[in-house]
Each structure stands twice: as structure tokens, then as C-alpha cells.
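Checklist before submission:
- one chain only
- standard amino acids only
- sequence pasted in full

Submission:
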Amino acid sequence: MNPIKTKSDLSFKKLSSKELKLVTGGNLADDFNNIRERFDAEMRKMEEEMSRFPVNLQNGIHNILDTIIPHKH
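Returned file contents:
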């Protein structure tokens, strides 16, 4: 097994699973799960923002129109 000396060695060399465990300290599955959990959390935030967007847009348009053409209450 050739030792991996620099980060660039990692990007140009196909690593066996044994080498990957050496490079990552054996925590590859944990690292992947952490990345996936962060990704899922970010996706949930985006979905919440996207679900609020139409309401916010409609309220914004309504407020702009009220300043241009005030309603008589």
C-alpha cells in the first residue's frame, strides 16, 4: 500500500476501503451520516421557506397596492 502524503494524492488515487478507513480514521459511515443529517435539515428549512413564499408574496403585493391605492375603511 502506498502511503498518502498530501491531499492532492487523495484526489488522484483510487482508494481501497482499507485505505479509506486509514485516511478517515474509520469514521466514514459516521461522516456520511452527519453530512446527510445536515443536508436533510437544510432541505427541511428550504421546504418551510418555500411553503411560506406564496403567502409572503401575496402579503407584500397587498401592502404595496395599499400604499399606491389606499382602501377606504
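Reviewer check: The helical segments are 7-12, 17-24, 28-68.
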